[in-house]
Amino acid sequence: MPRDMTPEQVRCFMSHGTRTAKVASVMKDGQPHVMPVWFVLDGEQIVFTTGANSVKGRNLRRDPRIALVVEDDEPPFAFVHVRGRVTIHEDLDELLRFATAIGSRYMGEDRAEEFGQRNAVPGELLVRVIPERVIAEADIAGY
């Protein structure tokens, strides 16, 4: 039987390994746009970077609504769905801090600084997701 995750289980699940978030933003014509992103948590907020001129970056600047899913696609399966709004920042020191943390998570500590330097540049955005609704279930297959 599926079970709801506690807030602590949600944080642990989302921070585990190199799971990506599939981020949905709203296109100008109202259609959804979904892309995977690397992310880290900062308290209750989900933080990722994106290019200011990317479709995702343009969408989120125009309309701060966002939805994302992080999943475990191995049995017994689990997911976290977050709906909320974003704030967007361009401070290069903050970009460097979080791009380096993201690099550490996904590329390993030995490449973290390289990834941080590559992504903490003008034209990159730091996106903070402020959750408004979280749905999280584990053991979906019921074992």
Polypeptide structure, described:
The chain is of the alpha+beta class. It has a single domain (3-138), classed as Roll (Pnp Oxidase, Chain A), CATH 2.30.110. The protein is 31% helix and 41% strand. The protein contains 4 helices and 8 strands. The chain has helices at residues 7-15, 55-62, 92-107, 109-119, and strands at residues 3-4, 21-26, 32-37, 40-42, 45-51, 65-72, 78-89, 124-138. Strands 1, 2, 3, 4, 5, 6, 7 and 8 form an 8-stranded antiparallel beta sheet that branches. Helix 3 (92-107) runs antiparallel to helix 4 (109-119). It starts with a strand and ends in a 5-residue tail after the last strand. The model has no long low-confidence stretch (mean pLDDT 97).
How would you classify the helix and strand content by structural class? alpha+beta
Question: Total helix count?
Answer: 4
Question: How many domains is the backbone divided into?
Answer: 1
- Radius of gyration, whole Å: 15 Å
Q: State the helicity in percent bands.
A: 25-40%
β-strand percent reads 35-45%
On the 0 to 100 scale, the average pLDDT is: 97
Low-confidence stretches: none
Map the helices and strands.
Elements: E1 3-4, H1 7-15, E2 21-26, E3 32-37, E4 40-42, E5 45-51, H2 55-62, E6 65-72, E7 78-89, H3 92-107, H4 109-119, E8 124-138
Antiparallel strand pairs: 1-8, 2-3, 2-6, 4-5, 5-8, 6-7, 7-8
